[in-house]
From TrEMBL:
Entries under Gene3D superfamilies matching the protein: 3.30.530.20
Native organism: Chryseobacterium potabilaquae
SUPFAM superfamilies: Bet v1-like (SSF55961)
Name by which UniProt lists this protein: Polyketide cyclase
Superkingdom of origin organism: Bacteria
InterPro entries from the UniProt entry: START-like_dom_sf
Amino acid sequence: MRIFKTLIIIVILLGGAYAASMYYFVDESKNFKIEKEINYPIDKVFSQFNNLQNFTRWNNFFTNSQSIDIDYYTPYEGQGSSMSYVDPKNDTEGEMFIRYENPNMTLKYQLFEDRNENPTLVDVKFKAVSAEKTKITWLVHTPKLAVLRRVENFWTEDRFAENINKSMVNLNNILGNKIEKDNQMAAIKYDSLIVEKEDGILLLGINVSTSNKKDALYKNIVMNYNKVYNYVTMDLAKKNDEFGLPILIMDADNYQDKEVSYFFGVPMSKKFGVTDNNFSFRTQNPSQDYVIYYKGSYAGRVKAIQQLIQKAKKDERRFGDIRQTFIETPLEDQDVNIKLSLSVYK
């Protein structure tokens, strides 16, 4: 009994010491600032923050969970927009509001987490460092915590900073894919042969062998485009701006063969586990390419491919695969809009 009483006294003393230290030495709330720069124009960056549907596609807090359920409320962007979320697996829920907007300059968020009636206040400021670079500053004010919970303030800033670091990687990938698509559409010059240096890319897709008779190849391409697109958007839950334009890779000179083999996939930012054995990753190394943009019937692309091969032979260059990037979605019985790229080397 005496030992039991002694233990109770020790626990009370330790609890009192803990409470006193929290009360006198730990702030009831925290204020901190985090700054980052991203190599994209301010208008492109700002639109990813003031539209909460865009925001949840790259913010690590939301993308890191497969079980989170999000509801968005009108207006869907700018001041007055809001959303709520529930994550049963991680036992969290909350609401987020945009309370103030100064376009391309400032946003003020309120985040209510779980059942806390006091919100986390986040002011985000945007500054154009140059035409192609934006500085983002987060000013964070956390809600007041009860004395016994103030220990959480020791890791709040680190946790927030880690989330931003991961989120910025996601945002960079999304903007890269989106702006690449926009730039490609704006820069197209059809039927002119040009030389381009291509960066390495990582593709997720499928290997295919099929007949090359009449329209059989193109019908097969349309079918496999749908397979890849549905797998990426439905099974993997990727948004359209999280992957690049669809690409078909095949031998440059097998367009006359009765049977052809090709790889059809979409560019991804990183590798991850794939549970469907029909799909795999393929890496394309950086290359120098002879390029022609072509629009017309799929069968008519052969003339453009021949032009690329003839140019390579004239320049005494060896060549590898032909890469067909579909600028517009391939649809049955419709013309194609594609970029034909022939990798060449000495």
